[in-house]
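Changelog-adjacent note: as of this version, every example in the card shows the full chain rather than a window. The one below runs 318 residues end to end.
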Amino acid sequence: MRSILRGVLLGLFVAGLARGAAAGDTAYVTNQESEELSVVDLDTMTVEKTIKIPGKPAGIAVSRDGSRAYVTRPEAKAVSIVDTASGKVIGEVETGGGPLGIAVHPSGSPVYVADWYTHMLLLVDPEKRQVVGSFETGQSPSGVTVSDDGKVVVTADRDSNQLSFIDAATGKAIARVKVGERPFGVAFSPDGSRVYATNVGSDSVSIVDAKSHKVIGEVPVGSHPYDVAETRGRVFVTDQYDSTISVFDEKTHAHLADLETGDYPEGIAVGSGGRYVYVANWFENTLAKIDAKTLKVVATVTVGDGPRAFGAFIRHAQ
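Full-length structure tokens:
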């Protein structure tokens, strides 16, 4: 009898491990027009759940441990906190102003919120559920990104045509770097050595050395680039007005492809292992999956109305 019981328990344990191992990436796509969050299984490319988020949700940031998703709601002047395990909104933080871009410190706190109207980077304590401080940026900060070691926060200051490199511990400016016209999206390279900024006004991507804070490249892309991501030596840029994804080589900056994923692409992120790139298409109401090696769209899924997914919208497999 004991051997049978041990066998049953072992079987349940192994099955649990198998289920855990099989769990893949999940996307949290902000749909601004339908005011909801689409939760997408990225293995099957199916919508698992839809969560109502009033207030025109735009920015999204999933915590490093995957337990929380933070959503900016510009019209509501607030940030929603979503528990990813239950798929429920468990709280909100009133920010005032115009919250847009958002990022989470690798430790899980604070949450950084770019305030478009007050020209500040707000520091949100997710446990206290309140704004506990602010850092000075340039005019109209949009995108926000944090270095993997949590020491540096970078904002794209759209109306100052610059990036702000900020010491996360002190809030002091490390550097203000002039880039192209109206930078919007911003991202670190996977190795942390470079920062990319999409320049909406000059149809280009500025490449900034993360240590020297010097612009080391300016790459022309499609019309009105929105956001950017790098994987496997290739840089992917969403070109809103051209409805394409510009792809260029990370080292040589040579143009590699113009991919069509859907109408008016905006948010972009890389999945676990860097094999796939995911793009939210605003006018198409879809999320597209791109093979980073073949540069082919391998799947799409219909989400809500007006998907933006501006930020780190993927919960990586644990």
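Structural remarks: The chain has a mean pLDDT of 93.
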